[in-house]
Amino acid sequence: MIVIGASAGAVEALSHILPALPADFPYAVLIVVHIPSDPRSHLASLFAGRCNLRVKEAEDKEPLSPGTIYFAPSDYHLLAESDYRLSLSSDEPVRYSRPSIDVLFESAADAFGDDLTGLILTGSNSDGAKGLRAICDAGGIALVQTPDTADAHEMPLAALKACPGARSLSLSEIPAALNSLHSR
Q: Which residues cross the membrane (predicted)?
């Protein structure tokens, strides 16, 4: 499984990464983007026509399906469960965010340990740093967008500080890194 967190500048960053994943990509990809608490997010529909993989908004208790990109819905935390299902929570915001990147990353680290890759992209707060640390501690792979290639560098900087062993990659290098997971 791959978990991705992004905030300010997310659409542009994800537009470089998600369409580059091949149709036979064998992993589920769970994404949290800080979005306003509108009744409906348009991220899944925005990316559905651009990607080789199935793209959808996550639903509560939905089974994970390889080769599918799941976006956290507006105003819900997205969690990964050890029974290969997703769950949604309306618990309090974390660092002013619901959905929270830390909530997704920590739940995925607990559920999948070293079978997990976490990626922090552009953003202007520290959400995701603690979660990426949990992925590192569980033996997973930690990737971070190089701060100077991010629209907002605060989130990548916080992630690198929390997880010094994370691999820092430019936006143009990230698709190849994710595809190399597929070729292993």
A: none
